[in-house]
Amino acid sequence: MKVLITGAAGFIGANLAERLLARGNEVIGVDNLDPYYDVSLKKARLARFLNHPGYTDIRADISDRKAMPEIFARHKPDGVVNLAAQAGVRYSLENPLAYIDSNVLGFANVLEGCRHNGVKHLVFASSSSVYGGNTKLPFSVHDNVDHPLSLYAATKKGNELMAHTYSHLYGLPATGLRFFTVYGPWGRPDMALFKFTKNILAGEPIDVFNYGHHRRDFTFIDDIVEGVIRTLDRIPRGDENWSGSHPDPATSRAPYRIYNIGNHQIVELMRYIEVLEECLGRKAELNLLPLQPGDVPDTEADTSDLMRDTGFCPDTSVEAGVARFVAWYRGYYGV
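^ thats the sequence. predicted structure below, dont judge the formating
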């Protein structure tokens, strides 16, 4: 299988590319090296496989209406994994148009590329943020998700709707994956674990929102990548039992599916910080702050559909995952 990955220099994209190359896939990696966070980290991720004979590196923005059709026409991928996006809930309050450009216009270009070039399966990143105002835990893919709390979440919900439309109109098999709080080695500097580690080692306080009462379904990067590969290999078919009188958001008569990929274990943020303190051998100075606009207080994934259809369910504990992140962080930054 020839797989095109957008966002190949990103946290998930680079780890996915490395895994696919290791199992013998040909990978076309598309990334624009956006300076939203440290570009040198993105280049270091790419350096791990940049010279692999099965890898093709392309510098392009998915919102570029001229470049994307040319990439699809030239390389004719069998599968596409769309991971390129403007990430971050809080940044979407400051720069909303960046999310429209990348997450909406860019995704439309990806859909058009798939439609016109015979792509056999599109897998795309959604987010646990789409659950928005929902409070029933665990979050199920069969629940309605029409109350997003940030523009980031709204664009991810929009991606799911756009993909379903292409599945319905053009028969494009599409699978959307709602990722739950991904962490681990080579992670994003704008995320909590990275910020906490940097500040604790520097002897600086860490900002803890919602006064530390957040609860999250923290999911280790290796489990996310395994989930992506399992779903990529399973091309969806239309659900013959789907009913318009009782519509199921997770399935369709079209070849379309939605899955949660989470650790299905809810962990209090304060426990997460305790684990990090144990791994670093240092105590954190906490700067307790109120809940931020756009944030969801609690997340927990119902992964029963993922387990049923792929035989896989993430299970890496935060104790094991945080320890591996800290070991990587110390090595990468020489701390």
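The CA atoms of residues 277 and 283 lie 5 Å apart.
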